[in-house]
Amino acid sequence: MSEFIDVGGLTPGSVTDLAPVDFAESSISITPRDAVSRVRPLDEYSMRDMPKDKVGFAKIGDFKGLENEAIIVVDLPPPGKNGENRAEHYVAMSRARSVLSLIFWSVNQVDGRSAKGSDERELGQCTFDRCIAS
């Protein structure tokens, strides 16, 4: 979030975090306290008039039909083999006017096996033109 606001020059109100789960269950809720304090979970009323001083947070399905300048999608499961979650992926990724960022957990794979054990995960981020593993 800070990359978009502090570095990218966007206002907090022009950024929305989307997840398939409620705020309390999302990875946004476990980010450092200063980052969480910049986020406001949106309800059906505040979604129509985005708060200007906070980054909004909404469940993907609740944000259908709305958009914002920058969208950060978190906790999105991979699409299923039979097209499961396809609609949710489409809704999440089509809400951004200018900037789309996907934050995901991925298993670090080497030759089909986890490189450091079956529970080894790394945080990754995809933006329009790049993916970064941290």
Topology readout:
Blueprint: H1 2-7, E1 15-19, H2 33-36, E2 39-41, E3 55-59, E4 68-74, H3 86-93, E5 96-107, E6 109-110, E7 113-114, E8 121-127, E9 130-133
Parallel strand pairs: 1-3, 1-4, 2-3, 4-5
Antiparallel strand pairs: 5-8, 6-7, 8-9
What can you see in these coordinates?
This protein is mostly beta strands. It has a single domain, classed as Rossmann fold (3-Layer(aba) Sandwich), CATH 3.40.50. The chain is 13% helix and 35% strand. The chain is built from three helices and nine strands, in the order αβαβββαβββββ. It has helices at 2-7, 33-36, 86-93; strands spanning 15-19, 39-41, 55-59, 68-74, 96-107, 109-110, 113-114, 121-127, 130-133. The protein has a seven-stranded mixed β-sheet, with no helix packed on it. The longest helix has 8 residues, at 86-93. The radius of gyration is 15 Å and the shape is globular. Residues 107-123 and 127-134 have low confidence and may be disordered.
Strand content: 35-45%
- CATH-assigned homologous superfamily: P-loop containing nucleotide triphosphate hydrolases
What would you call the quaternary organization?
Answer: single chain
Q: Return the CATH topology.
A: Rossmann fold
Number of strands: 9
Number of helices: 3
The CATH architecture name reads 3-Layer(aba) Sandwich
The poorly predicted ranges are 107-123, 127-134
The helicity comes to: 10-25%
Encode the helix/strand succession as letters. HEHEEEHEEEEE
Q: What is the overall pLDDT average? A: 77
Radius of gyration: 15 Å
- Strand arrangement within the widest β-sheet reads 2-3-1-4-5-8-9
